[in-house]
Specification:
Elements lengths: L1 H15 L2 H26 L10 H27 L2 H9 L1 H6 L5 H40 L6 H28 L7 H20 L7 H21 L5 H8 L3
Helix pairs in contact: 1-6, 2-3, 2-6, 3-6, 3-7, 6-7, 7-9
Amino acid sequence: MRRIGIVMKREYREIRQTAAFRIIIIVAAAVAIAASVAISITLHRQSWLGEKMATPLLRLFVSMVLYFVPLFIIITFIGAFGNLQVVREKVNGNIECLLATPLTPRALWLGKSLAIFLPAYFTSVVAAVIVALVMNLAAIVPATGDFVLPVPALVLGLAVNPLLFLGLLLFMIMFALANNPDIALAPLFLLGFGLMIGAPIGLMTGVIDFTSWSFVFWYLAGTVVALAIVLVLSRLLTSQHIVLSSKGS
């Protein structure tokens, strides 16, 4: 754990100093503010807002915020940093120097992954919670007297789905270390944009229900399977594979 922490702190320090990191934080803040204001104003203008029959619709709106706001921010972080650090270190030869130290391939892999995921997760949670709170306090509570926060959607959006993307990031960093970093981003586009497009379609057709514990359970089951596969594949991550890939072999 100490070696992982060393790598994580080093990687995070380098990521935090980049212009991309600052831009993403600013964009995340802008998205949270804009979404909070726009959704609250839109809800205020709806004549049905104070009706009891509107509760399922309000639960849907809040659940979509809890799912898509973190999804957008985490995808942005992973897209910006998912392979950048590995590419730089392979080009300048730092990977081989790091492997000559007591650091293990697993420590490099986990440290690099957590340095990206933890700030992404923290930022996404803060942004999603702000939007959900403003929606409730500015529009929903005054009109209905109820605070709408579906627990299944909360668990899905702030725990299960980020865990799925942690697994994706782990796979990407592992692939970038042992293979070609240039194509390590491909899984992100396949899964990320697949969810961004497929989830709304599923919601409209009734196939997906963010407020259902059953859906959360199956989503979690798929996430656990994906993480298990990544952990099994991580056994193939060796110093030899990393060095050979950095030499273009």
